[in-house]
Design a protein that fits this description.
This is Beta-lactamase-related domain-containing protein. Keywords: Signal. It contains 17 helices and 29 strands.
Amino acid sequence: MAAIGTLLAGLPAVTAPAVAHPGPPAAVFDPAAVAWASVRDQSSAAFAQTFAKMKADGYLVLDLEIDASPGDYRVGAVFQRNLDHRAWRSLRDLTEAQFATERAKAAADGLRPVDLETYQIGSQRRYAAVWVQNVEKLGSAMRHDLTGAAFSAWFQEQKAARRLPLDIEQYRTPAGMRYAAAWVDNRENLAWQLHRDLTGAQYGTLFTQNQGAYRMLALDSVTGPAGQRYAGIWVANPGGRQWRERRDLTLGQWNNWWSRYSDEGFRLVSYERYATPAGTRYAGIWRQNSDRPVWNLRAKADARIQKHLTDAKVPGLSVAIVQNGQYRYLRGFGHADVANDVWLDSGHVLGLASVSKAVTGALTLRLTDQGEVNPGEKTAKYLPAIPAQHTHTLKQLADNRGCVQHYDEGSGFGRKTPYATSLASAQEFWKDPLVCTVGASHYSTHGYTILCAALEQATNQNTADLIRTRLTTPYGLGTLRAKRLADTDVRRSKIYDTGNKLIAYEDETAKTCGGGMESTPADIAWFGHRLAKGEILSTPSMTAMWGSSGYSYGWSVGAESGHRVAAKDGANTGAASYLRIYPDDDIVIALQSNRRGHDAPQLGKDLGALVLNG
């Protein structure tokens, strides 16, 4: 039997969900923070690929979920970093005989059971299980297909043996309701409770009663002859680390809460998909996985952002705060898609608008450090075909002193969209006269297009590739990129006009460097952090960019209460953005929204002051 089990798809079946957790030792399976991932509703073949990759990357299965229904077969799982590199095994789609063989083999190989799944495919019952290396030599037990009476008797036996329940499953068979569970020695002496066959009301009452002293370890739900029934395992929660539980969620609600809790600093430890008379529902248990849930300024930040959202009637707003090299705050407010009730979260990509200029300034100096451009040189050195009136330098373009036209001041950007390069866009308008004397201050998005045309010629790379290869990839900035609407491998928010009417994205390849980049708030905040820490630019380049007050290389540089500040705001159709950095304090505030026409900079300044003075 292969490690992932036999691949099955499209076969009729009956659902039977279950949950599990390896339990002790807590330092390995319930650490304060650990890398994790989860997938849901994958086909058997897709999950086989996911499983192989996650195992190769050093993860183990924390919870396996197989949900089979007529004509369908879906697999989900929660993965967690295998902190002590212990051996483990996960098999699925086993017959009764195969399961017995593999169970005996796992025991012989020094593994203990932590998860059991059973489900019906056609007329055949199938089994799946997860085992982990029994490094601690803990006693354990796992049984299935027990009647209610048999389960009760076995429950008392395991309780007398001082064991802790890890997994509870209740499922329907032609012979009636059946039960399964996994147990392990309770060497950490945790108080616990296991309850099954609960109505929704009974479950809710127990949940409320146990919420203070206990946390949930497992949750199960099944539709039986008497209606929907629930089971749960509660264990003591020494230290009071936070946790969350959600049940009976539609798919849309599941996605919203999954993202919200991830932003708030929780990791998923248990995932459920189950049938109800109202349709498929989802449930999960989350565990605190960072200091974000207990950040002392969290409530104040929430209140200030929510007030802005309410007062400005913005569809959606997302914020990231980095302090001392850690995400202190990640949160989306409002909607990424109002009509479909999709909440905005920090994983949604939004337009950077003119914050793109600050990124371009850093890119220019990055290329300076790499010896490929000299900002003091005339632009014409890099663009020999540019008309003679363009006597500015690269630095003057980056400082908005090149006197290139802005919107509505000349022929502007052409209509030959999309543009493959900044050069192609610049050639559409660079024949126009300059609008002032070079060296005078004049804000210009078009000037940044000419700047990036020069960078392209100096490096023989187009703008999109320059951003990706010189910033995004080497510094782990994820979604920071030139906006290319044909690229659909990101979760873009919907965008809205100032009347909150849904509008379509416009092609912005004509102005990538001045206003056509995109990112998540989390990634643009991390860009700010790495920039401030001197990880992207040399000391001379940092001095050139932020060494004096005023507008420099796309940034407005100044001070607040004696603390240096570098900031940039942006707004265009369907976007408002703001990036604020306190370089000497390692504080970064990033916010983005899916509508212009509100004072995002003031909100960013207020949040900056909150953190600076907090």
